[in-house]
């Protein structure tokens, strides 16, 4: 038997059903006995939605009103009545089992499953298997229109069924016509057999992914804006009704190994992926989630792994994975098992533990643990921030993809740490950023996130010839991704004005881009972390009072750093030198000169990193002018390092650590203030700060 099912929501209708998250307001169904070609009673039930504000399209098509829906039953009660009435009709027809049959996939996959998931009640098993009448019709009549172009009316017209939609109530006509189409398919000329129903997965299956796998790019999406604490099961719940591939949820991590609010999700086929894209800006809790297309290569980069140890660890299917962070470096498997206790037994004992290590075998303080059921995992999560040894341990839900990412990240860490960055990183001369109030720059706002330099140059058209060398600056967000903004330095204010007039609201790909004329000062404010809007300029963090250590006041004038100090940070030791032979010859190698403006600009704030290839990609030093060389030649300088080993590098500082905490940490290790007198040209205020009773001075 089939149960022909039709439904409608308070919002979009037809091909966009369910795309706007509106609730179900109507269910109509009828039982069909395929063997005896009989039908049961046709039932129509209104559903009381939480939000009775109907869209104009819904009012026009359905004829329903908020007043009428206000007297209806809620969805859970209607579904109970559905099960009872279907069972009663089957008994009358002498049947015992049935499968749903709907007009397309949207009602089941995009409406019923997501809504019941959000309202926290379970659908009966009958809603996890159904026939798509459009696909069955196309199979029976191969010469008919493509499945995506079919509707109930087009299928009826193809069969010459003379039904008048205006004569019946909304929903009743659709079900009666669907039943007539089914009987036509069962006729002697066709003898269609319903054999392969569509299925909806009951739960998401975890599993490993190998980098050698082939992943179809037409099956992958990127979800953005996820709560940081969301797990793979939460994401699977967001896409409830759609079939995610085994191990197909990969949570993305940032450079610190923490989740960045994005995930790559792989579906079983392109049809499921297309339905997932329709959930763009649907909500997870109070947050809306953006859904975009992604590629198989991106998915493998995040979820793929090559480690046999990881593959063996993840080979146990349907396990709940918990990540432990902050373990003592001396912690053993027995210590971890003892910490978790008997109330949350680990799957396989020691085999269910995976310690994350550096390539040389040193522990990182991270570990992953497998649990066989949700109850054990919940018991483990209750131990979040409990003490093991002398450290508190953080516990989080994790995924197979996160295991791969964390292992890949640590295993690719170089054994020899990179050299510390220079004390005062400055931009080489060819890449100086404009300042001043002359409005010779333009700001591009609303760029597609996929836009690159080539796209911007093509967008500018003939005006590209008026761009200063290396004058295109992409603005990145805190995660290092394009923010949709860019600044362009033009050769004159007139050129900037002409570009703003010509290109404002011009299309780039599928978006229009706003173009505004601005000054170099305004551009610098944004590039350094400030904001520029209708209310004016909001200064970047480096310009706010009291955010920079007092010692930075020393850099009010040009500073000359002696050769002994400069030798510690030779550019060749870090990145390829960009200094030209002429620049090298212009000044003796014994003095490195730092302009006052550059020192002030880059000492206080380094959160913004311009994107290559048009912005600085190397760190260099600016040659000193002759006057500075002469002054340095007559001055006596004290080396920055009085003796070998006096400079130390600190790693693992808490993010909220300030200068006072660092000075307190080094209590008892005193540097004489006189050691700094010759380091830089000091103002009286800065000298008083350095000569204050401190043990250390933080550079």
Write the layout of secondary structure elements.
Elements lengths: L1 E8 L14 E10 L4 E2 L3 E4 L9 H7 L3 H5 L4 H19 L5 E4 L3 H13 L10 E4 H8 L11 H8 L12 H14 L12 E2 L20 E5 L7 H7 L5 E10 L5 E9 L2 H8 L4 E3 L2 E7 L2 H8 L4 H6 L6 E6 L7 H8 L12 E5 L5 E9 L2 H8 L4 E3 L2 E8 L1 H12 L29 E5 L7 H8 L6 E10 L5 E9 L2 H11 L2 E3 L2 E8 L1 H8 L3 E3 L2 E3 L20 E3 L1 H6 L12 H6 L5 E3 L1 H8 L22 H9 L24 H7 L18 H7 L9
Parallel strand pairs: 1-5, 5-6
Antiparallel strand pairs: 1-2, 2-3, 2-4, 6-7, 8-10, 8-12, 9-10, 11-12, 13-15, 13-17, 14-15, 16-17, 18-20, 18-22, 19-20, 21-22, 23-24, 25-26
Care to describe what's here?
Mean pLDDT is 78; it is low at 413-431, 541-626, 628-633, 635-645, 671-682 and 689-699. 29% of the residues lie in helices and 21% in strands. Helix 6 packs across helix 7. The strands form 6 sheets. Strands 1, 2, 3, 4, 5, 6 and 7 form a 7-stranded mixed beta sheet that branches. It folds into 5 domains: 2-199, Ribonuclease H-like superfamily/Ribonuclease H (Nucleotidyltransferase, domain 5), CATH 3.30.420.10; 220-303, RRM (RNA recognition motif) domain (Alpha-Beta Plaits), CATH 3.30.70.330; 311-411, Alpha-Beta Plaits, CATH 3.30.70.330; 441-528, Alpha-Beta Plaits (2-Layer Sandwich); 650-698, no CATH class. It is built from 23 helices and 26 strands. The N and C termini lie far apart (79 Å). It is of the alpha+beta class. Its main location: nucleus. Keywords: mRNA processing, mRNA splicing, Nucleus, Repeat, RNA-binding. Belongs to the ESRP family.
């Amino acid at each position: 038997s089939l149960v022909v099912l039709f439904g409608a929501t308070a919002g979009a209708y037809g091909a966009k059903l369910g795309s706007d998250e509106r609730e179900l307001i109507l269910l109509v169904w009828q039982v069909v006995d395929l063997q005896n070609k009989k039908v049961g009673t046709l039932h129509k039930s209104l559903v009381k939605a939480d939000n009775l504000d109907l869209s104009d399209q819904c009012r026009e098509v359905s004829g329903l009103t908020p007043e009428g829906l206000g007297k209806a039953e809620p969805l859970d009660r209607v579904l109970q009545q559905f099960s009872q009435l279907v069972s009663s009709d089957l008994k009358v027809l002498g049947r015992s089992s049935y499968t749903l049959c709907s007009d397309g996939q949207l009602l089941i996959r995009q409406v019923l499953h997501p809504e019941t998931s959000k309202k926290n009640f379970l659908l009966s098993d009958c809603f996890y298997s159904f026939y798509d009448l459009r696909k069955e019709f196309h199979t029976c009549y191969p010469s008919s229109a493509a499945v995506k172009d079919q509707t109930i009316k087009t299928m009826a017209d193809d069969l010459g069924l003379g039904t008048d939609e205006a004569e019946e109530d909304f929903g009743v006509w659709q079900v009666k016509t669907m039943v007539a189409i089914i009987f036509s398919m069962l006729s002697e000329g066709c003898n269609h057999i319903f054999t392969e129903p569509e299925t909806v997965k009951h739960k998401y299956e975890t599993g490993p992914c190998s980098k050698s796998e082939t992943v179809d790019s037409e099956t992958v999406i990127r979800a953005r804006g996820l709560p940081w604490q969301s797990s793979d099961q939460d994401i699977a719940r967001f896409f409830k009704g759609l079939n995610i591939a085994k191990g197909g949820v990969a949570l993305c991590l940032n450079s610190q190994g923490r989740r960045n609010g994005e995930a790559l999700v792989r579906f079983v086929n392109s049809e499921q992926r297309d339905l997932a894209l329709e959930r763009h800006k649907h909500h997870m809790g109070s947050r809306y989630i953006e859904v975009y297309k992604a590629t198989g290569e991106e998915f493998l980069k995040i979820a793929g792994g090559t480690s046999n140890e990881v593959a063996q660890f993840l080979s146990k299917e349907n396990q709940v994975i918990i990540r432990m962070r902050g373990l003592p470096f001396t912690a053993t498997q027995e210590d971890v098992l003892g910490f978790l206790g008997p109330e949350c037994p680990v799957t396989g004992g020691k085999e269910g533990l995976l310690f994350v290590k550096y390539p040389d075998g040193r522990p990182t303080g991270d570990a992953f643990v497998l649990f066989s059921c949700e109850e054990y995992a919940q018991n483990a999560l209750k131990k979040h921030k409990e003490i093991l040894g002398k450290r508190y341990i953080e516990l989080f839900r994790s995924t197979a993809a996160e295991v791969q990412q964390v292992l890949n990240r640590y295993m690719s860490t170089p054994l020899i740490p990179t050299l510390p960055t220079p004390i005062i990183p400055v931009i080489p001369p060819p890449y100086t950023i404009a300042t001043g109030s002359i409005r010779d720059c333009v700001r591009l706002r609303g760029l597609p996130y996929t836009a690159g330099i080539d796209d911007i140059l093509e967008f500018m058209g003939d005006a590209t010839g008026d761009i200063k060398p290396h004058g295109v600056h992409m603005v990145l967000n805190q995660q290092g991704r394009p923010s949709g903004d860019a600044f362009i330095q033009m050769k004159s204010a007139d050129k900037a004005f002409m570009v703003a007039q010509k290109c404002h609201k011009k299309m780039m790909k599928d978006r229009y881009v706003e173009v505004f004329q601005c000054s170099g000062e305004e551009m610098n404010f944004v590039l350094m972390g400030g904001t520029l809007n209708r209310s004016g300029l909001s200064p970047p963090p480096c310009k706010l009072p009291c955010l920079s250590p007092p010692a930075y006041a020393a850099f009010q004038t040009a500073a000359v750093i002696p050769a002994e100090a400069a030798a510690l940070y030779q550019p060749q030791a870090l990145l390829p030198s960009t200094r030209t032979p002429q620049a090298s010859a212009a000044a003796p190698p014994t003095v490195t000169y730092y302009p006052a403006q550059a020192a002030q600009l880059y000492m206080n704030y380094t959160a913004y990193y311009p994107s290559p290839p048009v912005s600085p990609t190397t760190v260099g030093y600016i040659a000193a002018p002759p006057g500075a060389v002469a002054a340095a030649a007559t001055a006596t300088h004290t080396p920055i390092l009085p003796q070998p080993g006096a400079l130390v590098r600190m790693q693992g500082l808490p993010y909220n650590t300030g200068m006072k905490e660092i000075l307190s940490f080094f209590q008892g290790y005193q540097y004489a203030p006189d050691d700094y007198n010759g380091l830089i040209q000091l103002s009286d205020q800065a000298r008083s700060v350095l000569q204050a009773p401190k043990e250390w001075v933080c550079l």
